[in-house]
Amino acid sequence: MEFQFPKPELVSFREKISEIPSSQYLTHSIYYHPAKFIPQIVRYCLNVHCKNKSVILDLFAGSGTTALESSIKGYDSYMIDINPLLNYFYPIKIPEFTLEEWGEYIKNAKKFLHKILNEKETKRFDIDGDLEYWYPKEMYDYFVKVWSNYHNLKNKEDKITQKIVILVLFKLSRLYSFAEHSMPKLFISKRKKAFIQKFLENENKEELIGKKAFRFLYEVNDSVLSLLNEKKLTGKINYFSGADSYDFDFDQLPKIDCIITSPPYLQAQEYMRTFKMEMRWSGISNKKIKEYTNKEIPFRKPEGKIEGNYINYIRNKLKKKYLIEMFDSYFWFTIKSLEKASNRLNKGGKLCVLIGNPKMEGIEVEIWKVIYEYFVKNFNYKFLELFDDKIVYRKLFTGRNNQNPKGMKSEYLLVLEKL
Known about the structure:
By secondary structure, the protein is of the alpha/beta class. The chain is built from 15 helices and ten strands. The radius of gyration is 22 Å and the shape is globular. The two termini are 25 Å apart.
């Protein structure tokens, strides 16, 4: 390969950004999310590569790490993500209410939660999907009652109270299911089956579930209180939930100063599946869920093929047809989404992309090299920095029957400047 690539600099962003005590601080851990962007990396990009009053974009916004950190720094931000549940997560994670208003919301949420847990079923809510698969019958019937109460009574509550309670119900419904709740993936584990069978032996099951529900509520309260007491969120967040970055009309956005994003991982496309249980309980139809999952990268037919020295080199080493198709689909939709978003970057704007190196047929695919070559060669972007940050704690791939059974050890932060 003739094209020359920079050498990554080893770094620990957790140590480098000492102003952030933990990747779980404030509301960053308010709800589980697969392969979360750690806030230290976003803060580094904001500190070093974004000037005062910058406008930030994350086109693969996920859990909203970029949004929260941008707001803390006083930067307005635009978030795009295919997950429709962001409408529930973001208003609590990145609040626009005051500390006094939050006190009222929590008071209302306690009453509302108690009501839906303890009232008899008001009117059966029609669940679209196969949720029975994830529960023993007794637990399924219980949660149908609880969720029916939520949907039938929610319109009597304000929007923030509704969102607080639905976050609690999401956690509760997953904890008391066969689904493994300790990982942000949706699958049944032997450990969870044993846990549920043991739990069913209790005579006071509903009382125990109620106590756990309020414990979850207090955890949400503690996270939001820590944020409201410690930080002033002066940056405005604008988010597009359930939006596909590839088809998104970026012209509706203002000019952007900095893109800070972490695209989906090649062969780790379980994003929408992860949230299927929550989407169904929240009332999203199975048909609509399929529309979202069909737009996941890389399960779509690309309109073309990304070319370059490095990507062609890797493609030619692959043997299996279905993996080559996945490879081409992944890079088409990822790179083209980044390209469309980068059209909104101001001159001198920064493109900060965090991504790992998965394997296909035992071949390491250095995704950052594809991004680097594409933008430097085709659009004359200037290279600024490349970091190799070791993954400290993240359950990516490990122990799963796939191309990356040992997981990925590092993630790479590539920073380019638009000339």
